[in-house]
């Protein structure tokens, strides 16, 4: 029974239940994990209808699948996250960050400390964050360390340190610090990080004025510097909202099989930073997006008060360059209404920002915020029937819908998860999606620019050499140490890019001693005899590492022995082993290229690559020969036993470190084992 027969039989038995499915390749390796509200519909969709290129690649590698039934969509979401973490499937969206986001932590100790951490655990400490990067977290800690005198040392010293004399520590190492003093400081830090920096700033300004009036100018300057640092830290905030909730705003964009997820961090109603991830995806776009969000919160347990998610995003952009949002359950008329509501909300947001800058949110702004929430709830009730219909349609197609994904996340995380349809929250989600679109466009432009640069450099180099076209370049380099273990290597560049599958290594057979010219003749002969014999593609240019002698040797073999008239050039290095000059033809005429040109940069890449490849191969051969000579010189060790020893121990060093008992599993007696160890130790001593 072939793979497809087995899959067809399994498809017929799929249940109408939620769960997770695991796709496997021929070796039984799990290559994709997905979730579904209805397993039958979702899994069948992979083997029916047409797919894009990336999904076709996934389906082509599926040889079997299995599934796990769950009791709800939320359980399927959590199970999918756990299975992805366990199996790391090739075609899944993987949260590849090797570390979580940084947080500020006030430790739960008798003498608490303020520190930056990436681990959020249940230790009764107070955590603030997450911060988008370590720099932002450390800058905030640096500011708080100047303002609040918590201890800085990990281990309590025997006497007071410089921090005490600077007024940045209460010196618990020598003095008894009452518990209420720490509680007051902890509450002040929590208030500052919770959005109370304006009150702290006003207090510092008052203290600064008092110090200046009493002629304590140095103290006044310290307080002024703290105020400047607060302003600098808080000035980076981009957006204000009428309330003071902590939110994570998600958006995503998809194009050409790639996805960009953007996270905007709103803390105390202000946007402080964003995080961006760009990666290829192979499944259904929104399903993979929800998978990313689930993994994100499984790695970052400190949750905001609210999460905002986008609705389904279509691939590509509209004429304005903004991402197209496919909002389920809305007509064209409601879309027009959205524009009007968004315009009003933008005005409200502007007024709210102004009032916040004046010292707080006005009563009118708060009323507008309440009316906006009421309008959202009313709209949600109005569209409930249409949303349910859209959800049923999505389930029939086996895809994940926005409402279902948000509901599952909300049930799992225990916080509010919304898919806003209009108003300021919709604008924030739209901004996150737009940032994703811009990030993807930038990625594709960089790829196109790089391709133009590399192919353009090859074309320009061909023109400089007088060649009609220059697509395929083959480059050679030799490597030996005083003639020992001579090797050569060839690399291939096509349209300015390395074609690593076509690289070749050569053990030099006929040359004795350090003779670069004869080595070049042998390798050129062997390579292009095979090209002629097997009708392989011929290069447009051959590059040799060296000057006139190497060029002449290569041309002599090509023209006089093989009848090939392929242009040959040589790359000469300076005394610092850097590419210095390009020589062309048997007469070795120099070609002038600007050092900052793309053509010269391409030649440098070719020379560095072939040199790296040759050196690596030479080191491998030299290492093998050293091991071989040392073991072969020991009586009783032949070719089979040498291979057995190296396979068992892994290296010559580990053989030296072994005991006599370690040789017994190889059927090597104690006497021979002792001879091996003594011989290797004697050789080491003589060196």
TrEMBL record:
InterPro entries of this UniProt entry?
GIY-YIG_endonuc, GIY-YIG_endonuc_sf, GIY-YIG_UvrC_Cho, RuvA_2-like, UVR_dom, UVR_dom_sf, UvrABC_protein_C, UvrC
Q: Which keywords fit this entry according to its UniProt record?
A: Cytoplasm, DNA damage, DNA excision, DNA repair, Excision nuclease, SOS response
- Give the highest taxon in the source lineage: Bacteria
Any one GO cellular component localisation term in the record: excinuclease repair complex
What positions does the domain GIY-YIG occupy? 16-93
Which PROSITE patterns does the UniProt record give? GIY_YIG (PS50164), UVR (PS50151), UVRC (PS50165)
- The chain positions of domain UVR read 198-233
Function of the molecule: The UvrABC repair system catalyzes the recognition and processing of DNA lesions. UvrC both incises the 5' and 3' sides of the lesion. The N-terminal half is responsible for the 3' incision and the C-terminal half is responsible for the 5' incision.
Protein name in the entry: UvrABC system protein C
């Amino acid at each position: 029974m072939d793979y497809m027969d087995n899959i067809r039989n399994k498809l017929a038995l799929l249940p109408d239940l939620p769960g997770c499915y695991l796709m496997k390749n021929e070796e039984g390796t799990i290559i994709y994990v997905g979730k579904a509200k209805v397993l039958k519909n979702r899994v069948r969709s992979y083997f029916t209808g047409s797919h894009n290129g990336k999904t076709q690649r996934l389906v082509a590698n599926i040889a079997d699948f299995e599934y796990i039934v769950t009791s709800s969509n939320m359980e399927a979401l959590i199970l999918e996250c756990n299975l992805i973490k366990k199996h790391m499937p090739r075609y899944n969206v993987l949260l590849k960050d090797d570390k979580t986001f940084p947080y500020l932590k006030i430790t739960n100790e008798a003498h608490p400390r303020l520190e930056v951490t990436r681990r959020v655990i249940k230790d009764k400490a107070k955590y603030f964050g997450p911060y988008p990067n370590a720099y932002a977290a450390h800058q905030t800690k640096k500011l708080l360390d100047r303002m609040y005198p918590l201890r800085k040392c990990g281990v309590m010293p025997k006497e007071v340190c410089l921090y005490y004399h600077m007024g940045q520590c209460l010196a618990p190492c020598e003095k008894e610090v009452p518990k209420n003093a720490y509680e007051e400081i902890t509450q002040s830090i929590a208030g500052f990080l919770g959005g109370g920096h304006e009150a702290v700033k006003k207090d510092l300004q008052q203290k600064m004025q008092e110090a200046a009036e009493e002629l304590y100018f140095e103290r006044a300057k310290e307080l002024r510097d703290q105020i400047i640092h607060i302003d600098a830290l808080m000035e980076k905030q981009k957006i204000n909202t009428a309330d003071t909730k902590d939110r994570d705003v998600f958006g995503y964009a998809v194009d050409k099989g790639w996805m960009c997820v953007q996270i905007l961090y709103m803390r105390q109603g202000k946007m402080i930073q964003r995080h961006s991830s760009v990666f290829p995806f192979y499944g259904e776009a929104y399903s993979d997006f929800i998978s990313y969000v689930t993994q994100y919160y499984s790695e970052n347990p400190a949750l905001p008060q609210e999460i905002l998610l986008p609705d389904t995003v279509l691939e590509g952009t509209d004429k304005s360059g903004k991402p197209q949002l496919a909002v389920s359950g809305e007509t064209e008329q409601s879309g027009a209404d959205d524009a009007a509501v968004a315009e009003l909300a933008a005005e409200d947001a502007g007024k709210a920002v102004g009032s916040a800058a004046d010292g707080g949110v006005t009563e009118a702004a708060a009323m507008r915020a309440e009316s906006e929430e009421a309008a959202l709830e009313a709209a949600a009730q109005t569209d409930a029937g249409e949303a349910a219909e859209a959800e049923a349609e999505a389930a029939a197609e086996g895809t994940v819908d926005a409402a279902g994904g948000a509901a599952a996340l909300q049930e799992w995380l225990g916080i509010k998860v919304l898919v806003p349809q209009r108003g300021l929250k919709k604008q924030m989600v739209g901004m996150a999606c737009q940032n994703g679109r811009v990030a993807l466009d930038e990625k594709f432009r960089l790829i196109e620019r790089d391709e133009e640069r590399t192919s353009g450099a090859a074309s320009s180099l061909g023109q400089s050499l007088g060649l009609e076209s220059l697509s395929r370049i083959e480059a050679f380099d030799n490597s030996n140490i005083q003639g020992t273990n001579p090797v050569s290597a060839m690399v291939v560049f096509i349209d300015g890019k390395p074609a690593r599958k076509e690289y070749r290594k050569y053990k030099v057979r006929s040359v004795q001693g350090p003779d670069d010219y004869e080595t070049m003749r042998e390798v050129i002969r062997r390579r292009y005899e095979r090209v002629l014999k097997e009708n392989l593609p011929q290069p447009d240019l051959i590059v040799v590492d060296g000057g006139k002698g190497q060029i002449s040797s290569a041309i002599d073999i090509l023209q006089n022995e093989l009848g090939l008239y392929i242009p040959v050039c040589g790359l000469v290095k300076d005394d610092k082993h850097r590419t210095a000059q390009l020589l062309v033809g048997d007469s070795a005429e120099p070609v002038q290229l600007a050092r900052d040109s793309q053509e010269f940069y391409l030649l440098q890449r070719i020379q560095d690559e072939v040199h790296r490849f040759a050196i690596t191969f030479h080191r491998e051969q030299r290492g093998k020969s050293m091991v071989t000579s040392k073991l072969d010189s020991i009586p009783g060790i032949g070719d089979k036993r040498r291979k057995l020893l190296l396979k068992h121990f892994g290296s010559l060093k580990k053989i030296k470190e072994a005991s006599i008992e370690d040789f017994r599993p190889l059927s090597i007696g104690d006497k021979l084992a002792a001879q091996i160890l003594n011989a290797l130790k004697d050789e080491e001593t003589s060196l």
